[in-house]
Specification:
Strand content of chain B: under 5%
Largest sheet of chain B: 3 strands, antiparallel
Radius of gyration of chain A: 21 Å
Strand order of the largest sheet of chain B: 1-2-3
Structural class of chain A: mainly alpha
Distance between the termini of chain B: 68 Å
Strand content of chain A: under 5%
Shape of chain B: globular
Helix content of chain A: over 70%
Distance between the termini of chain A: 21 Å
Oligomer: heterodimer
Number of strands of chain B: 3
Strand order of the largest sheet of chain A: 1-2
């Protein structure tokens, strides 16, 4: 909120606007992370379906699709959750600081 | 080899298993004597560090399905079974993204607590309790299969049913006598025991017989690439799936219904794709709605610690899940005899039996490794079965007896009710467990998740994010979705076990079979639709303080709205 004047005491946390905006921001963050994750999770069966030849290329004994699903998927999920945790904690701190602004 | 009551057993394996049982029971009683009440448990838990708590959640989460079932299923069905471990771990992400934060801020310990608090409805609490009890049995069945399989492996010639009864009775009495409360220390210990028990045999086996990639590499690729013959391989029996089917997506697991219907190969693939998607939805959403996992989000000092804990749980579980498929892959090449076994003699015991082949290289080593694996299996099904028994008994004794049947009962009566309830639930679980020898462990857990995905997940997700939800809508969606999934799953299992004759029907209608066996793809949308439609129709009964509830669910904990809410609520009544 760049336009906050110095004498205002931050948003009223019981107001409709505060709740609405808070939930919207949280939901947007969660959905962005979920969508990134779903892209790979739901995309992989489709890739197996459409490009079976490509997905069965051998990498160190593994087929490509086995390597992705059985090994590489886990680090990918760790990265998404790490990003989500960082962002959601920043979001909470920002909202809490804004709401506490001007309070004694 | 020793001989006990006429059954053969390996001394090392018996010793390791027995030590696990004794240590588990002992630690349970020791820590139960330190914390007397459920309140103690939660308060004590709040001082627990992130590392301990993450280990404890992971320990509670890794059941017989994770420890034994995944390996067995990978060996049996190949690639398609890999979706299970991946989605078990990934479901946690959904829990983190959509459910963990709001529920933690709201301070509801269980699904019935949340159901009552969010909708101010004691009636909905009762519905939720009955449902929790009912679904709990679906989780106990695979644990019992794990127990029966392990015991009939350890004691050659012991019937499967006896194994189920022995383990079931031991755990039931342990719970009834007050041991095995879900204590952080015990659960954390269980995680590391399971991790050790699965990782050590894998590394030793790979060092002796060749690594993961090599063993996978000998399975012929569907494209014209020569197979790498660098590991020794036992001949596959007739019942085993062919190499190409096994290593490729859309193999025996997902194409079963279409193959039975004798569809040509090119027409099978769309069915397999549908099955795969439905399976993914079931497990990801099912994990996000797992009731006995949610509780532990409150044993963190604050929301930030809870999130960090979830991150660590995902890492701990993810690392664990790298190992069971290795057993499946190695087992296919080194111990293919298991394909010919049925029930408890089948691939579900590959984790336990495979390390024994090391005896051929170095006498004694195989027995010790197999003993370690058995110890892990005991840790797995004992912790999960005890945890389920405690939470189901709690629901039956406190909610059904203490609140519904006899609200005026004394503490002593309630204590007795708890003991009787645990025996009743234990007996039902044992009885069900003896019936499911023919079903794969992992398959059964997947089905329990499918039911949770269509009931708990929509309930938690919609209640946390949509303020227009009413009690009627929530109940209609949870029961509608959950019961449809339950019927589908029950029909599949009953016909597979030969209890009802539906095989001709399945052959004629492969699509119906898939939608019954893996119902999540239609029951999850059904539940959400029911919730929206019924809530819109009953708009008048939206709780009057909905804005405050939503604020508590979503506002940062720093603002201290929870205390404000509790004060308002208690003064209002």
């Amino acid at each position: 909120m760049p336009e906050q004047s110095s004498h205002s005491s931050g948003p009223d946390i019981h107001s409709e606007e505060f709740l609405h905006r808070l939930m919207k921001r949280q939901l947007r963050l969660s959905i962005t992370c979920a969508a990134t994750f779903m892209l790979l999770l739901l995309g992989l069966p489709l890739a197996n379906y459409l490009f079976p030849q490509f997905m069965s290329i051998r990498v160190a004994g593994f087929t490509l699709t086995w390597l992705i699903l059985g090994v590489l998927f886990f680090p990918f999920v760790w990265i998404i959750s790490w990003v989500f945790i960082k962002r959601s904690m920043a979001l909470e701190n920002e909202e809490a600081d804004a709401a506490n602004k001007g309070k004694p | 080899m020793i001989n006990i009551f006429g059954v053969e057993a390996d001394i090392w394996i018996v010793a390791f298993s027995l030590i696990t049982v004794i240590v588990t029971i002992g630690m349970g009683f020791w820590s139960a004597s330190k914390s007397k009440t459920a309140g103690d448990f939660f308060v004590a838990g709040r001082s627990v560090s992130v590392g301990w708590n993450a280990s404890a959640i992971s320990g509670e989460y890794l059941s017989a399905a994770s420890f034994m079932g995944i390996a067995g299923m990978v060996m049996n069905s190949g690639y398609d079974a890999l979706w299970y471990p991946v989605c078990y771990a990934c479901g946690y992400l959904f829990l983190l993204l959509f459910i963990a934060g709001p529920l933690r801020r709201f301070g509801a310990y269980t699904i019935p607590d949340f159901a009552e608090g969010r909708f101010d409805s004691p009636l909905f609490r009762k519905i939720a309790v009955v449902f929790v009890l009912f679904i709990g049995f679906f989780y106990t069945m695979p644990q019992m299969k794990g127990a029966g399989t392990a015991l009939s492996y350890i004691f050659k010639g012991l019937p499967y049913e006896i194994g189920v009864i022995v383990v079931g009775v031991v755990i039931t009495f342990n719970v009834a006598l007050g041991g095995m409360k879900g204590i952080t220390l015990v659960q954390a210990f269980q995680y590391w025991a399971k991790m050790f028990a699965i990782a050590v045999p894998v590394f030793v086996l790979m060092a002796v017989y060749g690594d993961y990639g090599k063993h996978l590499g000998v399975n012929a690729a569907p494209v014209s690439q020569p197979a790498v013959e660098s590991v020794i391989r036992q001949p596959l029996p007739e019942k085993a799936p062919a190499d190409e089917k096994w290593i490729s997506p859309f193999g025996p697991l997902t194409s079963k219904a279409a193959v039975r219907a004798k569809l040509p190969p090119e027409e099978q693939k769309p069915y397999s794709l549908l099955y795969t998607y439905s399976l993914i939805i079931a497990i990801v959403c099912g994990t996000a709605g797992l009731p006995h996992i949610l509780v532990r989000f409150y044993t963190n000092p604050d929301g930030a610690a809870a999130k960090r804990t979830t991150m660590w749980v995902m890492i701990l579980i993810g690392v664990f899940y790298l190992f069971p498929p290795v057993f499946g892959v190695l087992g296919r090449n080194l111990l293919p005899d298991l394909y010919s076994g049925v029930g408890a003699k089948g691939t579900d015991k590959v984790v336990l039996e495979l390390p024994r082949i090391l005896n051929g290289q170095c006498p004694g080593l195989g027995s010790i490794m197999s003993g370690i694996a058995c110890a892990g299996a005991f840790a797995a099904f004992m912790s999960t079965f005890s945890g389920l028994l405690v939470s189901m008994t709690g629901a039956l004794a406190h909610d059904v007896y203490g609140r519904m049947l006899r609200p005026k009962s004394t503490p002593a009566q309630r204590m007795r009710a708890f003991k009787i309830s645990s025996v009743v639930i234990g007996a039902v679980a044992i009885l069900l467990g003896t019936q499911v020898e023919g079903l794969e462990i992992n398959f059964m857990v997947g089905q329990a998740f499918a039911i949770a995905a269509a009931s708990y997940f929509p309930l938690l997700f919609m209640s946390a994010w949509w303020r227009g939800m009413t009690m009627q809508g929530a109940a209609a969606g949870m029961l509608g979705g959950g019961i449809c999934a339950l019927i589908g799953v029950a029909l599949t299992n009953a016909s597979d076990l030969g209890k009802i004759p539906l095989n001709d029907f399945w052959v004629a209608h492969p699509l119906v079979r898939i939608l019954c066996e893996q119902p999540a793809i239609w029951t999850v949308p059904l539940a959400i639709t029911l919730m929206i439609v019924v809530s819109k129709l009953t708009r008048k009964s939206i709780p009057s303080d909905i804005r405050m509830k939503m604020l508590v669910l979503h506002a940062p904990e720093k603002l201290g709205l929870k205390q404000e809410y509790i004060q308002e609520h208690s003064s209002g009544h």
